[in-house]
Every structure is written in C-alpha cells, then in structure tokens.
Design brief:
The protein folds into two domains: about 140 residues, YerB-like (YerB-like fold), CATH 3.50.90.10; about 140 residues, YerB-like (YerB-like fold). With about 375 residues, the chain is mostly beta strands. The strands form four sheets. Strands 1, 2, 3, 4, 5, 8, 16, 17, 18, 19, 20 and 21 form a twelve-stranded mixed sheet that branches. Strands 9, 10, 11, 12, 15 and 22 form a six-stranded antiparallel sheet that branches. It is about 10% helix and about 30% strand.
C-alpha cells in the first residue's frame, strides 16, 4: 500500500509539524513574465432535466468484460490500463490551485485531473489539491501556497511531486521534510510564469514542466488509491441526482448528468468551468465529514483533521451510499465502508474528495440530496 520508507518516517513528520511556528505565507517571486494567450474551450449549452422516477438506469460505460482479469488498473482512476496504453510509471503530481473569487474565471487544468481534494482555508474560502497522473494539462493554475494539511492528504501517493507557490517558513520546512517532493516555484521559478489575472492569482505552470523536475530516482506510480467496481458492475445506492453543501463560505453543488455519466460541479450558483478544458465534473464525489482545527504552523489557517475516522457520503452513478471513512496514517489510503461495514467501491473515472466541517451545513448528515 505504501512506499517502504514511509512508515519509518511517519513519526518524524509529526515532530516537524510540532516544531514549526506560525507566520505569514509569502508567495514566490517570479521574475520571468511571458505573455500567455487566452485559450477558452467552447462549453456546450446544457439543459436541466427533472428526474421524477426513483429508478436509476446507468448510462456509465463499464469496462469491457473481454479484458483478462490480470489487466492492471490506472492507480488513481481505476480505469483498465489495457484501454489506456498501459500504466505510466511516472509519479503522481499534486498542484495547489487557488479558488478565491479572483482566480475562478481562469481555472485551468482542474477538469482533466484524476483526483481533486477541496479543503477549507482562511477567510471562508477553499483551495484545491489537484492530482494528475493519467493525463496532462497545459496550463495549470492559478497556483497558490500549500498548507499543513496537504501532507496528511497526499502522502499516500508514493512520494508525489508537489507544485505550489510557496508558504511560510514552517509550512516550507514541513513540506520539505515530508514524503512530498517539492517542485514548487520558490526553488524552480523557471518552470512557472505569470499569466491571466492579477497577482497573487496569476501564477501558472503545466504538467510537462513540473514532471521535468521529477528526481531521477523517483519511486514511480502511486498505488491504487480506492477500491473500484469489478468489471461489469455498477454503483448502486439511493437516488441522488443533485447534491449541495458548503465548505467554509463556499456553496457547492453537484448535478448528475446521465448523458455524460458523471456529476458536474457548480459553486455559488454558477457552473464551474475550466477555462481550457470546459465543464468540471467527476464520476465520483466523496463527501467526508472532518474536524478543522487551527494549524500549528499558521495561526491564520485552519487544518483539516484527516487522520482518524468520520462520516462519509459517496456519490456515483446518480446514487449515494452513506458510511464511514478511515485513515490511520498519512501514508495510508482513505478506507471507505458503508453503514454495514462493507467496502464502498467507486466507478472507474475521476474522483473529487470534499472535506466538509463536522457540524456545518456541509456535514454528510445534513447534505441536501434530491
């Protein structure tokens, strides 16, 4: 499940976090500022359809039953590698993406990520940890700073590359002492540039440039992060065509699009569109109820407590299964079980993990489902 050196260093991470003190979070200074052409993908006009039947007919294409049982899956999407040209041995790449209002019109690359984590940050805003492996994106951004919680969220990915704009001294020490591989702007300014938007909401890169920074001795691909449905089976739970909740002060919605076989995202009542790749969506949306505490490193930042367990609601195929999440160590995957203790398996494809605060309107116990 994890790289061999992970367990030996888990205690060291905790000591680094405890030793770091608070401070501000300066952004990296980028001296080269090329002109970036604005590329906007055409987004097809969508029509809202009211679903009145409680019976769900799956339109998600399931993997071919003719594949041999030993064909490997892509580690983050669960798609069969035989249909995707094999499993690339490159590492996962996690990039921190800004979700402040000034950044949203220029979101780029999010729509083609394998996995996205959404976490609460200061000011009632959210930020994304966008994880690439099976696909590339150009550009990726706007890129912002990291947080203490990123270590516990991303360490299961087998020494992933970590693209970010920088952070306060405590966060920087923590990231560099962790299992994340720092390919951030402070040390690699030539791989980042200033583009559309106003500072600090205008820092960009692309996956090719960030992958070029991977160390030669990187351990390769991450392990399979979730349980995925067996060949020829579909996700089955209770009907859930529309899902809404909040993280911080951000109102979030996911609407099931049967034609596309995925949930499509909105925030603040507006469709969430990637400037380059179009409407943002996912085959799986996992809502985890977590506690937030004050970061031990930055007195202004909340920290999601993602080690432990709590309630979970898993949405896929226009349906929902409720249950529990568990993650014992930073280097372990999230384990998802239903209310009877059985593993919850996901539909192969893209996955979003939404970290909502226990007791908030976004708590899985209070998520609005239609």
């Amino acid at each position: 499940m994890t790289h061999s050196k992970y367990l030996a260093g888990a205690a060291a991470l905790a000591l680094v976090a405890a030793a770091c003190s608070g401070g501000s979070s300066p952004e990296a200074t980028i001296t080269t500022i090329p002109t970036v052409a604005s590329t906007t993908a055409a987004v097809a006009e969508t029509t809202t359809t009211t679903i009145t039947s409680a019976t769900t007919t799956s339109t998600i294409p399931v993997p071919s039953t003719t594949l041999a049982p030993d064909v490997p899956r892509l580690p983050l999407t669960g798609m069969f590698a035989g249909s995707e040209g094999g499993v690339t041995n490159r590492p996962a790449l996690a990039v921190k993406i800004d979700n402040a209002p000034a950044a949203r019109r220029n979101h780029s690359g999010i729509a083609v990520a394998d996995v996205v984590f959404e976490e609460k940050v200061e000011g009632g805003l959210t930020r994304f940890a966008v994880v690439f492996h099976s696909q590339d994106a150009d550009p990726v951004g706007p890129i912002r700073s990291g947080r203490e919680q990123d270590v516990n969220l991303l360490s299961s990915l087998n020494e992933p590359l970590f693209g970010w704009s920088g952070g306060n001294p405590g966060v920087t020490r923590l990231i560099r002492a962790s299992f994340l591989v720092d390919v951030g702007a402070p040390s690699n300014s030539g791989s980042y540039y200033r583009g559309p938007g106003s500072a600090p909401h205008n820092l960009y890169s692309d996956t090719a440039s960030l992958y070029a920074l991977a160390p030669a001795d990187n351990p390769g691909a991450p392990s399979l992060q979730f349980g995925f449905l067996d060949d020829g089976t579909v996700f089955a739970g209770d009907v859930a065509k529309k899902v809404s909740f909040t993280i911080g002060n951000v109102d979030i919605g996911w609407d099931w699009n049967a034609d596309e076989g995925r949930y499509e995202r909105s925030q603040e009542g507006t469709k969430h569109v990637d400037k380059t790749y179009g409407q943002i969506g996912a085959q799986n949306v996992i809502v985890l109820a977590v506690d937030y505490r004050q970061s031990s490193i930055d007195s202004n930042a909340p920290e999601a407590v993602v080690l432990g367990e709590g309630q979970a609601s898993v949405f896929s195929n226009g349906e929902v299964i409720t249950g529990r999440w568990q993650k014992e160590l930073a280097v372990y995957n999230f384990v998802l079980t239903d209310d009877d203790g059985n593993p919850i398996k996901l539909t192969p494809g893209q996955t979003w993990i939404e970290l909502v605060e226990v007791g908030s309107p976004g708590d899985p116990a209070d998520v609005t489902i239609e």
